[in-house]
Design goal:
Helix 11 runs antiparallel to helix 12. The protein folds into three domains: 108 residues, Beta-Lactamase (2-Layer Sandwich), CATH 3.30.450; 101 residues, Beta-Lactamase, CATH 3.30.450.20; 185 residues, Helix Hairpins (Orthogonal Bundle). The strands form two sheets. It has a five-stranded antiparallel β-sheet with strand order 2-1-5-4-3, with helices on both faces. It has a five-stranded antiparallel β-sheet with strand order 7-6-10-9-8, with helices on both faces. With 439 residues, the chain is of the alpha+beta class. Helix content is 64%, strand content 18%. Strand 8 and strand 9 form a beta hairpin. It comes from Phreatobacter aquaticus. This is PAS domain S-box protein. One of its GO terms (biological process) is signal transduction.
Length: 439
């Protein structure tokens, strides 16, 4: 029964070894490292045929810089003493490319416990190693160029690189174990939006945007950042990694550009309004010029009419002189008639009455003539005053017209300059907005 039991155990072990050899790369060595055999999986991984390697030393798979080192010699001495070796190893294939293996070097001992050979079981992990190297390289690149900080799902700070601490102004010891809210403005940290921000990250939802943060001492910092939930093998988030770039200078420049653009736009609008106002003033000045020209023409017409009135008054003075002369002659005739009536006595009494009436009429005519002469003289004085006033008005209107002409010309020039200025400012506003968009 014992013999059959040992045989069954041996059969089981042989089956296990066979299964391992079918799934793993296997190679056997003497205790000095000389190759005695290798299975097909190993040969395929390293690019050799069996005859290429049997009898050769293990060092053919080792980098030249490593094979002559004390560590490599000790590696084989340890196995010759029966000491197990295992780990990840970089090996060189036949064509010179790197092959990474996860391997165990197992010394096989005889019945007395002395090592007789070494069996190596290996798995080709080159693809996984390169994938890991790629990931680690990307992480290293991020750490070199980006500010990186890690959080637990509730926002507690786990770790941060030097770039992040340099940007925020804190040391790692000052922030580790504290909540992300220490970087957030007090008006935002207690808001529903901030709570939802972390709730979404805990659900595995990516977040990215420009963020305003508060550094040490209350310093305002702007970052372009992504908050990346990291998933475990089951696909559940277990932490958040934030990658950030400091864009404070760019944001400040953009804000200045926006401010300048706003001012330029306002100035441009003001210049356009000024241009419109100047156009209105120019039109009003032209209308004033036309009104002044019309007034001058009216004054000239009134001046001409007043001159004719003065001439008519002068003519009437001559007529009055003639009337006065006739009145004098009538008085003289009346006097002569009175004298003759006195000589005629009773017979000339009726004639005397007529003579008195004629004399009275002559006196009335003289009185009326004197009044007319007085009115004509008054009219001549008024006409003279009117002429002088019209001359003064005309001189004033001429002065106003000259001023209006000068002002209208200046306004037209100013309108042209303002129009050009408005156009220039408008172009500046467009360029400022373009710079703002580029920023």
């Amino acid at each position: 029964m014992g013999i059959f039991g040992r045989s069954a155990k041996q059969t089981e072990l042989e089956a296990e070894v066979s299964a391992i050899r079918r799934s793993q790369a296997v190679i056997e060595f003497n205790l000095d490292g000389t190759i005695t055999s290798a299975n097909a999986i190993f040969l395929e991984a390293m690019g050799y045929a069996g005859d290429d390697i049997v009898g050769m030393h293990h060092r053919i798979f080792v980098d030249a810089a490593e094979r002559e080192t004390p560590d490599y010699r000790e590696f084989w001495k340890a196995m010759a003493r029966g000491e197990f070796q295992g780990g990840e190893y970089r090996r060189i294939a036949k064509d010179g490319h790197d092959v990474w293996i996860q391997a165990t070097y197992t010394p096989i001992v005889d019945s007395s416990g002395r090592p007789t050979k070494v069996v190596k079981y290996a798995s080709d992990i080159t693809r996984a190693k390169m994938h890991l190297a790629n990931i680690e390289g990307q992480i290293a690149a991020f750490n070199r160029s980006q500010a990186v900080i890690e959080f637990s799902l509730d926002g507690t700070i786990i770790d941060a690189n030097d770039n992040f601490t340099d940007v925020i102004g804190y040391s790692l010891a000052e922030i580790q174990g504290k909540h992300h809210r220490m970087f957030v403005d007090p008006t935002d940290r207690d808001s529903a939006a901030y709570r939802e921000f972390w709730a979404r990250l805990a659900r595995g939802e990516f977040q990215a945007a420009e963020y305003r943060r508060i550094g040490k001492g209350g310093r305002e910092i702007w970052i372009l950042a992504s908050y990346n939930p990291i998933l475990d093998p089951k696909g559940k988030p277990f932490k958040v990694v934030k990658l950030a770039s400091n864009i404070t200078e760019q944001v400040m420049r953009r804000k200045k550009t926006e401010f300048v653009s706003s001012i330029v736009t306002q100035v441009a609008a003001g210049a356009e309004e000024l241009e419109a106002s100047i156009r209105d003033i120019s039109q009003n000045m032209l209308r004033s010029k036309d009104a002044a020209d019309t007034a001058v023409n009216s004054v000239d017409a009134a001046d001409s009419q007043t001159a004719r009135l003065t001439a008519a008054a002068a003519s009437m003075t001559g007529i009055l002189d003639m009337i006065n002369n006739i009145t004098g002659q009538i008085n003289l005739l009346a006097l002569n008639a009175t004298i003759e009536a006195a000589r005629a006595g009773e017979a000339g009494r009726g004639f005397a009455v007529v003579a008195n009436e004629v004399k009275g009429l002559a006196a009335q005519a003289r009185h009326a003539s004197d009044q007319i002469a007085s009115e004509i003289e008054s009219m001549r004085g008024i006409s003279s005053d009117v002429l002088m006033g019209l001359e003064t008005i005309k001189a004033s209107i001429d002065s106003v017209r000259s001023f209006v002409n000068s002002t209208a010309s200046a306004v037209e020039e100013q309108s042209a300059v303002t129009g050009e200025m408005a156009s220039t400012i408008q172009r500046a506003a467009v360029e400022a907005m373009a710079l703002q968009a580029a920023a």
